Amino acid sequence: MLASKNSLIRIYRLVANIPYGGVGVRSVENILKTNRGSCSGKHKLLGEIYSDIGYEVRYCMGRCDLRSMNDYLPKSLELSEVIYDFHNFLEVRIEGEWRIVDATFGCEEGKKGLPTNVEWSGESDCNLSFSIQDEYWIVEDIFESKGAEIAGLSDAMQDKRSRYFQHFYEYLQS
Asked: In terms of C-beta density within 10 A (0-12 exposed, 13-18 middle, 19 or more buried), how is residue 17 classed?
């Protein structure tokens, strides 16, 4: 049986308000244990809950250039060179239409100036937390797919990505 749209929205806000962070905190179990999660882990959790309450869910991923975050972050975190990452989010069928759902950032991240969708009503697509380059794609296994894409980056790019997110997490916790 399909849960109400109000339930869908309340669950969305609960997951969105789990603080962003934790390098590699992708498993649902770790998110629940640490109360922290990245885009992939938070969307895996949200997707599983939505599926359990009767909604059709598709896991999505797209490549992003982290410089797209420069407008939201302090100068100390601004990037001048390209650093790639892969952003995860969902498509959820709501009242017969596929909607983009992005619960990456919540109220706490919003206080730091990051883009949030905490007022999402389920009537339209969420804005993506990270700007996707080109088109996004549907993935079967959100963790395996993200791991494979990251592994496909050069060693230098993986190192830059890792260092960037370490500074980003430290900023969010400050």
From this structure: middle
Tokens of 96: 């017969």
Q: Which residues contact 63 (CB under 8 A, 6 or more apart)?
A: 84, 85, 86, 87, 132, 133, 134, 149
For range 88-101, the mean pLDDT? 98
Rg of the chain on CA atoms, in Å:
15
pLDDT in tens, 109-120: 999 999 999 999
Rounded distance, CA 12 to CA 1, Å? 18
Mean pLDDT of the chain: 95
Contact between 67 and 161 (Cβ < 8 Å): no
Task: Give pLDDT tens digits for 140-161.
Answer: 999 999 999 999 999 999 999 9
- pTM exceeds 0.85 for this model: yes
Q: Which residues 6+ apart lie within 8 Å of 130 measured at CB?
A: 39, 64, 66, 68, 69, 85, 87, 104
Domain-by-domain residue ranges, the chain? 5-173
CATH class as words, domain 5-173: alpha beta
